[in-house]
Amino acid sequence: MNSQDEESAIVSEGVLERSIYEFGTSDVDMFLKSEQHYGVGHCLHQDATFCVGSSQEITNTVLFENLPDSTQQNNVMPVISPVSTSTHPSMVNYPGPYSFDVQLNKLAGDKAKWEHSSKLNKLFVVMDAKIPLWFKVKPVEPGLLVRILPIFLAQDYFAEPVKRCPTHISSLEKSNQDFFYVDHIVRCHHQGVKYEKDPESQRLSVIVPIEPPQPGSDWFTIMCSFMCKNSCILGMNRRSTALIFTLERETGEVIGRKLLNVRICSCPRRDMSKEESDQSKKGIEPEKQIMKIKSCDKKILMKKPTKPLSNELVKLPIPRKFLKPLKEILLLHKHYRDLTEEEKIFLEDINKHLL
User: Could you tell me which residues come within 8 angstroms of residue 343 by beta carbon, excluding any fewer than 6 positions away?
Assistant: First the structure.
Protein backbone atom coordinates (compact mmCIF):
# COMPACT_ATOMS: atom_id res chain seq x y z
CA MET A 1 0.00 0.00 0.00
CA ASN A 2 1.50 3.34 -1.02
CA SER A 3 1.46 6.51 1.12
CA GLN A 4 -1.63 7.91 -0.59
CA ASP A 5 -3.61 4.73 0.04
CA GLU A 6 -2.47 4.71 3.66
CA GLU A 7 -3.68 8.28 4.17
CA SER A 8 -7.04 7.45 2.61
CA ALA A 9 -7.41 4.48 4.92
CA ILE A 10 -6.64 6.62 7.96
CA VAL A 11 -9.19 9.24 6.92
CA SER A 12 -11.87 6.62 6.41
CA GLU A 13 -11.29 5.35 9.94
CA GLY A 14 -11.71 8.85 11.38
CA VAL A 15 -8.29 8.91 13.10
CA LEU A 16 -6.57 11.49 10.95
CA GLU A 17 -3.45 12.75 12.68
CA ARG A 18 -2.60 16.45 12.89
CA SER A 19 -1.46 17.63 9.47
CA ILE A 20 -1.10 20.82 7.49
CA TYR A 21 -3.01 21.00 4.23
CA GLU A 22 -2.24 23.50 1.53
CA PHE A 23 -5.26 24.56 -0.46
CA GLY A 24 -4.61 25.54 -4.03
CA THR A 25 -6.78 27.88 -6.08
CA SER A 26 -9.03 25.12 -7.37
CA ASP A 27 -9.39 23.59 -3.90
CA VAL A 28 -10.48 26.90 -2.35
CA ASP A 29 -13.00 27.58 -5.10
CA MET A 30 -14.49 24.12 -4.73
CA PHE A 31 -14.64 24.49 -0.94
CA LEU A 32 -16.32 27.92 -1.07
CA LYS A 33 -18.97 26.60 -3.47
CA SER A 34 -19.79 23.67 -1.21
CA GLU A 35 -22.52 23.72 1.45
CA GLN A 36 -20.00 23.37 4.27
CA HIS A 37 -17.98 26.53 3.70
CA TYR A 38 -20.00 28.88 5.97
CA GLY A 39 -18.13 29.73 9.17
CA VAL A 40 -14.57 29.03 8.02
CA GLY A 41 -14.75 29.79 4.31
CA HIS A 42 -13.92 33.45 4.79
CA CYS A 43 -10.60 32.52 6.41
CA LEU A 44 -9.37 30.66 3.34
CA HIS A 45 -7.65 32.80 0.74
CA GLN A 46 -6.03 31.93 -2.54
CA ASP A 47 -3.03 29.62 -2.04
CA ALA A 48 -3.59 29.75 1.73
CA THR A 49 -2.38 27.30 4.35
CA PHE A 50 -4.98 26.03 6.81
CA CYS A 51 -4.24 23.86 9.82
CA VAL A 52 -6.82 21.60 11.43
CA GLY A 53 -6.72 19.00 14.14
CA SER A 54 -8.95 16.33 12.69
CA SER A 55 -11.62 15.77 10.10
CA GLN A 56 -14.23 15.72 12.88
CA GLU A 57 -13.10 19.13 14.20
CA ILE A 58 -13.56 20.89 10.88
CA THR A 59 -16.93 19.18 10.41
CA ASN A 60 -18.12 20.45 13.81
CA THR A 61 -16.79 23.93 13.00
CA VAL A 62 -18.54 24.17 9.64
CA LEU A 63 -21.81 22.31 10.09
CA PHE A 64 -23.80 24.27 12.67
CA GLU A 65 -26.82 22.09 12.04
CA ASN A 66 -24.87 19.05 13.29
CA LEU A 67 -23.92 20.61 16.63
CA PRO A 68 -25.23 18.86 19.75
CA ASP A 69 -28.12 20.40 21.66
CA SER A 70 -25.81 21.38 24.55
CA THR A 71 -23.79 23.61 22.23
CA GLN A 72 -26.93 25.25 20.86
CA GLN A 73 -28.30 25.86 24.32
CA ASN A 74 -25.09 27.66 25.26
CA ASN A 75 -25.86 30.14 22.44
CA VAL A 76 -22.49 29.46 20.82
CA MET A 77 -22.04 29.28 17.10
CA PRO A 78 -18.33 28.38 16.72
CA VAL A 79 -17.13 30.50 13.83
CA ILE A 80 -13.86 32.21 13.15
CA SER A 81 -14.03 35.91 14.05
CA PRO A 82 -14.93 38.23 11.16
CA VAL A 83 -13.70 41.82 11.10
CA SER A 84 -17.23 43.20 11.54
CA THR A 85 -17.53 41.67 15.05
CA SER A 86 -14.05 42.50 16.31
CA THR A 87 -13.40 44.37 19.54
CA HIS A 88 -13.37 47.72 17.70
CA PRO A 89 -15.56 47.47 14.59
CA SER A 90 -15.79 50.43 12.24
CA MET A 91 -18.82 52.74 12.57
CA VAL A 92 -18.26 54.70 9.34
CA ASN A 93 -21.19 54.62 6.90
CA TYR A 94 -20.10 52.91 3.70
CA PRO A 95 -22.61 52.38 0.84
CA GLY A 96 -20.02 50.38 -1.07
CA PRO A 97 -20.36 49.02 -4.60
CA TYR A 98 -23.92 47.80 -3.91
CA SER A 99 -25.33 51.16 -2.68
CA PHE A 100 -26.15 49.54 0.66
CA ASP A 101 -28.71 51.44 2.74
CA VAL A 102 -31.05 50.82 5.67
CA GLN A 103 -34.31 52.66 6.34
CA LEU A 104 -37.35 52.28 8.55
CA ASN A 105 -40.66 51.53 6.88
CA LYS A 106 -42.77 54.53 7.90
CA LEU A 107 -45.86 53.21 6.13
CA ALA A 108 -46.00 49.90 7.99
CA GLY A 109 -45.90 48.78 11.59
CA ASP A 110 -47.39 50.20 14.75
CA LYS A 111 -46.00 53.73 15.14
CA ALA A 112 -47.19 53.82 18.75
CA LYS A 113 -44.51 51.24 19.50
CA TRP A 114 -41.64 52.92 17.69
CA GLU A 115 -40.48 56.32 16.47
CA HIS A 116 -37.60 57.34 14.24
CA SER A 117 -35.80 60.67 14.54
CA SER A 118 -34.04 61.80 11.38
CA LYS A 119 -32.40 64.62 13.35
CA LEU A 120 -30.74 62.17 15.72
CA ASN A 121 -30.52 59.21 13.29
CA LYS A 122 -32.07 57.24 16.11
CA LEU A 123 -34.74 54.59 16.57
CA PHE A 124 -36.89 54.71 19.72
CA VAL A 125 -38.69 51.41 20.18
CA VAL A 126 -40.68 49.45 22.72
CA MET A 127 -39.19 46.16 23.87
CA ASP A 128 -40.31 43.08 21.89
CA ALA A 129 -42.08 45.18 19.24
CA LYS A 130 -41.58 43.98 15.66
CA ILE A 131 -39.97 46.66 13.51
CA PRO A 132 -39.84 46.48 9.68
CA LEU A 133 -36.32 47.34 8.50
CA TRP A 134 -35.90 48.13 4.82
CA PHE A 135 -32.62 47.13 3.17
CA LYS A 136 -31.40 48.29 -0.20
CA VAL A 137 -28.80 46.32 -2.16
CA LYS A 138 -28.34 47.04 -5.84
CA PRO A 139 -27.65 44.85 -7.68
CA VAL A 140 -28.62 41.76 -5.66
CA GLU A 141 -26.24 38.82 -6.00
CA PRO A 142 -26.38 35.33 -4.48
CA GLY A 143 -24.38 34.81 -1.30
CA LEU A 144 -24.82 38.30 0.21
CA LEU A 145 -25.61 38.60 3.93
CA VAL A 146 -26.72 41.33 6.32
CA ARG A 147 -25.20 41.32 9.80
CA ILE A 148 -26.81 43.28 12.67
CA LEU A 149 -24.43 44.05 15.54
CA PRO A 150 -25.46 46.02 18.68
CA ILE A 151 -22.73 48.14 20.29
CA PHE A 152 -22.22 50.62 23.13
CA LEU A 153 -21.41 54.14 21.93
CA ALA A 154 -19.48 55.37 24.99
CA GLN A 155 -15.74 54.96 24.61
CA ASP A 156 -15.41 53.37 28.06
CA TYR A 157 -17.81 50.55 27.15
CA PHE A 158 -17.31 50.32 23.38
CA ALA A 159 -15.35 47.05 23.54
CA GLU A 160 -17.97 45.31 25.71
CA PRO A 161 -20.58 43.04 24.09
CA VAL A 162 -24.22 44.11 24.38
CA LYS A 163 -26.24 41.44 26.19
CA ARG A 164 -29.63 41.10 27.83
CA CYS A 165 -30.04 41.66 31.55
CA PRO A 166 -30.44 38.73 34.01
CA THR A 167 -34.17 39.43 34.35
CA HIS A 168 -34.99 39.14 30.65
CA ILE A 169 -32.60 36.23 30.12
CA SER A 170 -34.48 34.14 32.67
CA SER A 171 -36.12 30.91 31.59
CA LEU A 172 -39.36 32.23 33.10
CA GLU A 173 -39.47 34.97 30.46
CA LYS A 174 -42.20 34.17 27.96
CA SER A 175 -40.10 35.33 25.00
CA ASN A 176 -37.43 32.72 25.84
CA GLN A 177 -39.70 29.72 25.41
CA ASP A 178 -38.26 27.30 22.82
CA PHE A 179 -35.50 29.76 21.97
CA PHE A 180 -31.82 28.98 22.59
CA TYR A 181 -30.14 32.35 21.93
CA VAL A 182 -31.50 34.22 24.93
CA ASP A 183 -28.37 36.41 25.30
CA HIS A 184 -29.05 38.27 22.06
CA ILE A 185 -30.62 41.74 22.18
CA VAL A 186 -31.58 41.67 18.49
CA ARG A 187 -33.98 39.01 17.25
CA CYS A 188 -34.84 38.67 13.55
CA HIS A 189 -38.01 36.94 12.38
CA HIS A 190 -36.65 35.29 9.25
CA GLN A 191 -36.41 31.68 8.17
CA GLY A 192 -32.69 31.84 7.31
CA VAL A 193 -31.52 33.82 10.36
CA LYS A 194 -28.33 32.75 12.17
CA TYR A 195 -27.18 33.93 15.61
CA GLU A 196 -23.45 34.25 16.14
CA LYS A 197 -21.11 34.81 19.07
CA ASP A 198 -17.58 35.98 18.33
CA PRO A 199 -15.20 33.66 20.24
CA GLU A 200 -12.66 36.45 20.74
CA SER A 201 -14.64 39.67 21.32
CA GLN A 202 -17.72 37.84 22.69
CA ARG A 203 -19.91 40.14 20.58
CA LEU A 204 -23.36 38.86 19.66
CA SER A 205 -24.70 39.44 16.16
CA VAL A 206 -27.45 38.26 13.84
CA ILE A 207 -27.02 37.26 10.19
CA VAL A 208 -29.82 37.27 7.60
CA PRO A 209 -29.38 36.29 3.93
CA ILE A 210 -30.23 38.91 1.33
CA GLU A 211 -33.40 38.25 -0.63
CA PRO A 212 -34.25 39.72 -4.03
CA PRO A 213 -36.77 42.58 -3.70
CA GLN A 214 -40.25 42.37 -5.13
CA PRO A 215 -40.66 43.42 -8.79
CA GLY A 216 -40.64 47.19 -9.12
CA SER A 217 -38.92 47.74 -5.76
CA ASP A 218 -35.31 48.22 -4.71
CA TRP A 219 -35.95 47.31 -1.07
CA PHE A 220 -36.58 44.12 0.88
CA THR A 221 -37.88 43.92 4.46
CA ILE A 222 -36.61 42.14 7.58
CA MET A 223 -38.74 42.13 10.73
CA CYS A 224 -36.68 42.66 13.89
CA SER A 225 -37.40 43.06 17.58
CA PHE A 226 -35.31 44.09 20.58
CA MET A 227 -35.47 41.95 23.69
CA CYS A 228 -34.17 44.20 26.51
CA LYS A 229 -34.39 47.85 27.60
CA ASN A 230 -31.61 50.42 27.80
CA SER A 231 -32.67 51.14 31.38
CA CYS A 232 -32.26 47.54 32.61
CA ILE A 233 -29.86 47.22 35.54
CA LEU A 234 -26.98 44.76 35.04
CA GLY A 235 -27.74 44.88 31.33
CA MET A 236 -27.36 47.95 29.12
CA ASN A 237 -27.76 50.01 32.31
CA ARG A 238 -28.78 53.32 30.67
CA ARG A 239 -25.80 53.29 28.30
CA SER A 240 -26.24 54.66 24.77
CA THR A 241 -26.43 51.98 22.10
CA ALA A 242 -26.42 51.69 18.32
CA LEU A 243 -26.74 49.07 15.60
CA ILE A 244 -24.09 48.43 12.95
CA PHE A 245 -25.58 46.93 9.79
CA THR A 246 -22.95 45.38 7.52
CA LEU A 247 -23.38 43.93 4.07
CA GLU A 248 -21.05 40.95 3.76
CA ARG A 249 -20.14 38.19 1.41
CA GLU A 250 -20.16 34.61 2.61
CA THR A 251 -16.38 34.87 2.89
CA GLY A 252 -16.75 37.56 5.60
CA GLU A 253 -15.73 40.49 3.37
CA VAL A 254 -17.54 43.72 4.35
CA ILE A 255 -18.88 45.53 1.28
CA GLY A 256 -21.32 47.95 2.95
CA ARG A 257 -22.06 49.49 6.34
CA LYS A 258 -24.73 51.65 8.00
CA LEU A 259 -24.98 52.92 11.60
CA LEU A 260 -28.29 53.52 13.39
CA ASN A 261 -28.61 54.78 16.97
CA VAL A 262 -31.24 52.95 19.01
CA ARG A 263 -32.96 53.32 22.36
CA ILE A 264 -35.24 50.58 23.69
CA CYS A 265 -37.69 52.24 26.08
CA SER A 266 -41.28 52.29 27.35
CA CYS A 267 -42.42 55.56 25.73
CA PRO A 268 -40.68 56.17 22.37
CA ARG A 269 -42.46 59.44 21.49
CA ARG A 270 -41.72 61.05 24.86
CA ASP A 271 -38.05 60.06 24.82
CA MET A 272 -37.62 61.18 21.22
CA SER A 273 -39.14 64.62 21.92
CA LYS A 274 -36.92 65.08 24.96
CA GLU A 275 -33.70 64.12 23.17
CA GLU A 276 -34.52 66.29 20.15
CA SER A 277 -35.23 69.22 22.48
CA ASP A 278 -31.95 68.69 24.32
CA GLN A 279 -30.10 68.49 21.02
CA SER A 280 -31.66 71.77 19.84
CA LYS A 281 -30.54 73.52 23.03
CA LYS A 282 -27.01 72.23 22.60
CA GLY A 283 -26.95 73.52 19.04
CA ILE A 284 -27.63 77.16 20.05
CA GLU A 285 -24.51 79.29 20.28
CA PRO A 286 -23.73 80.59 23.79
CA GLU A 287 -23.84 84.20 22.60
CA LYS A 288 -27.47 83.81 21.57
CA GLN A 289 -28.45 82.50 24.98
CA ILE A 290 -27.03 85.50 26.85
CA MET A 291 -29.51 88.31 27.47
CA LYS A 292 -28.25 91.58 26.07
CA ILE A 293 -28.28 94.56 28.43
CA LYS A 294 -29.00 97.92 26.87
CA SER A 295 -26.20 100.40 27.26
CA CYS A 296 -26.97 103.69 28.99
CA ASP A 297 -25.40 106.82 27.52
CA LYS A 298 -26.48 109.07 30.37
CA LYS A 299 -24.00 109.65 33.15
CA ILE A 300 -25.42 109.67 36.64
CA LEU A 301 -23.63 112.07 38.96
CA MET A 302 -23.95 111.93 42.72
CA LYS A 303 -25.28 115.08 44.29
CA LYS A 304 -23.11 116.95 46.69
CA PRO A 305 -24.40 117.05 50.28
CA THR A 306 -26.38 120.20 50.95
CA LYS A 307 -25.16 120.37 54.56
CA PRO A 308 -21.52 120.15 55.56
CA LEU A 309 -20.51 117.03 57.48
CA SER A 310 -20.05 117.65 61.18
CA ASN A 311 -17.88 115.93 63.77
CA GLU A 312 -20.84 115.28 65.99
CA LEU A 313 -20.77 111.86 67.65
CA VAL A 314 -23.90 109.85 66.93
CA LYS A 315 -24.86 107.14 69.38
CA LEU A 316 -26.67 104.05 68.17
CA PRO A 317 -28.45 101.51 70.36
CA ILE A 318 -26.48 98.27 70.70
CA PRO A 319 -27.91 95.05 72.13
CA ARG A 320 -26.42 94.10 75.49
CA LYS A 321 -25.13 90.74 74.20
CA PHE A 322 -22.74 92.59 71.90
CA LEU A 323 -21.28 94.87 74.58
CA LYS A 324 -18.90 92.35 76.10
CA PRO A 325 -17.30 91.37 72.75
CA LEU A 326 -16.93 95.05 71.86
CA LYS A 327 -15.27 95.73 75.20
CA GLU A 328 -12.77 92.95 74.58
CA ILE A 329 -11.97 94.42 71.20
CA LEU A 330 -11.38 97.88 72.63
CA LEU A 331 -9.19 96.52 75.42
CA LEU A 332 -7.19 94.66 72.84
CA HIS A 333 -6.70 97.86 70.90
CA LYS A 334 -5.71 99.63 74.09
CA HIS A 335 -3.05 97.00 74.71
CA TYR A 336 -1.34 97.73 71.41
CA ARG A 337 -1.96 101.46 71.00
CA ASP A 338 -3.57 104.45 72.63
CA LEU A 339 -7.31 104.75 72.19
CA THR A 340 -8.80 107.75 70.49
CA GLU A 341 -11.12 110.05 72.40
CA GLU A 342 -14.15 108.52 70.73
CA GLU A 343 -13.01 105.01 71.65
CA LYS A 344 -12.39 106.04 75.26
CA ILE A 345 -15.92 107.46 75.53
CA PHE A 346 -17.32 104.33 73.92
CA LEU A 347 -15.45 102.11 76.36
CA GLU A 348 -16.74 104.09 79.34
CA ASP A 349 -20.33 103.74 78.12
CA ILE A 350 -19.86 100.00 77.74
CA ASN A 351 -18.52 99.68 81.29
CA LYS A 352 -21.50 101.58 82.64
CA HIS A 353 -23.98 99.30 80.91
CA LEU A 354 -22.14 96.16 81.98
CA LEU A 355 -22.16 97.11 85.66
Answer: 330, 333
Q: Provide the pairing of β-strand 254-265 with 122-126.
A: parallel
Binding-site sequence positions for Zn(2+): 165, 168, 228, 232
Cβ(206)–Cβ(196) below 8 Å: yes
- Percent of the chain predicted with pLDDT > 70: 65
Q: Is the pTM of this model over 0.70?
A: no
- Every domain of the chain and the residues it spans: 1-66, 78-278
Q: What are phi and psi of 192, to 5 degrees?
A: -100, 20
Contact predicate 208/193, CB 8 Å:
yes
Out of 2.70.20.10, 3.40.390.10, 2.60.40.720, 2.40.30.10, the CATH code matching 78-278 is 2.60.40.720
Tell me the pLDDT tens digit for each residue of 212-250.
888 888 899 999 999 999 999 989 999 999 999 999 999
